[in-house]
Amino acid sequence: MEKIDPRKYGRIVFFTGAGMSAESGVPTYRGHGGVWSQYRWEEYACQEAFDADPEKVLRFHELRRAAVLACAPHAGHATIAALEKEHPGVTVVTQNIDGMHQRAGSVKVIELHGSLWRLRCPEHGLTEDLGEKYGNYRCEHCGSWLRPDIVWFRDMLDQYVMNAAIAAIRSCDLFVSIGTSGVVYPAAGFPHFARSNEARCVEINPEANEMSSLYDEAIRAPAGKALPELFA
Ligand code: APR
Questions:
Q1: What separation in Å is there between the alpha carbon of 127 and the centre of ligand 1?
Q2: What CATH number was assigned to the domain covering residues 27-70+118-150?
Q3: Is the model's pTM score more than 0.85?
Q4: Is 205 in the pocket of ligand 1 (CB under 6 A)?
C-alpha cells in the first residue's frame, strides 16, 4: 500500500460509515444480524414511535448507548484523531451516531445522522448527555420529553449539518471514504462533490460496492489496519 503524505493536501475529509464502528464491535443497524433485524424501527426509531411511547424509545436508545460504551475506538479512529492534531485541514464527516471519533480525540466531526449523546427539547434545544442512562428523560425547564438528537427513519437531514458536510467535501483535495456502502442518501453524492474539486478519492472497505468506481483508489482492508498503514 502506497503511503499518503497528508502535508501534500490542504483539506482532508474522512467520510465514515457503519463499517468503521463495526470493527470496534459496535452493533450495526442494517443487514443480517443488525439491530433492525431484532427491533422494529417503527416501534423504536421514528417520531411516531416517540410520540406514542417516549419512555420505550428512550430506553431502547439507552441499550444502544450501553452497547457503544462496551466498545473502544480502534487504531483507525486514533490515526484520524492524531492527524487532526497536526493538520488544521482535517474534517470528519460521519454517518455514525455513536461518537467513537470524538472518543478517539477527533474534534471537527460533522454528524450527519445526529448523536446518541445528545437530547433535544422542542422548546429549549440541545443538551449533551453522556453515560449509559440518560440523566433526564424530561427537560428540566419545561418538563417536555427529551428526544434523542438522531435522524430517525422518515426524518429529514438537518440542512445546516448537511450544508457543512457538503462545503467541507466540495473544498477538500483528499477524500477518504471508510466503511460505508455509500448507497444511503446523501452519501451517494459525496464522491461526486469531491471529484468536482478534483480531490484524490480513496476508498477503504474490504468489499467493493456500486459506488467503488467513483474512487481513484481502493484499499481492500479493514479500517483499523488500512488507516495506520496509509498515514504512517
Ligand atoms: N473497515 C472498513 N469497512 C468495513 C469494515 C471494516 N473493518 N467492516 C465492514 N465494512 C464495510 C462493509 O463492507 C460495508 O460496505 O462497511 C460498509 C457498511 O455499510 P452499511 O452497513 O451500508 O453502512 P453505512 O454506509 O454507514 O450506512 C449508512 O444507513 O442504516 C443506516 O443510519 C444507518 O448510518 C447508517 C446508514
A1: 28
A2: 3.30.1600.10
A3: yes
A4: yes
Residue 107: which of 82, 126, 132, 74 has the closest Cα? 82
Distance (angstroms) between ligand 1 centre and the Cα of 154 equals 20
- Strands 114-121 and 147-150 turn out to be antiparallel
Which atom of ligand 1 is the closest one to the Cα of 36? 30
pLDDT for the residue numbered 43? 98
Strand 12-16 relative to strand 90-94: parallel, antiparallel, unpaired?
parallel
The amino acid present at 87, given as its one-letter code, is: H
Close Cβ partners of 213 (under 8 Å, ≥ 6 residues apart):
none
Rounded Cα gap, residues 72 and 77, in angstroms: 10
- The per-residue pLDDT for 31 is 82
Q: Where in the chain is the domain with CATH 3.40.50.1220?
A: 1-25+73-113+156-232
The proportion of the chain whose per-residue pLDDT surpasses 90, expressed as a percent, equals 93
> Count of residues for the chain?
232
The grid coordinates listed for 87 are 493538520
Sorting pLDDT into bands at 50, 70 and 90, what band is 2? confident
* pLDDT for the residue numbered 30: 86
The correct CATH number of 1-25+73-113+156-232 out of 1.10.10.350, 3.40.140.10, 3.40.50.1220, 3.40.30.10 is 3.40.50.1220
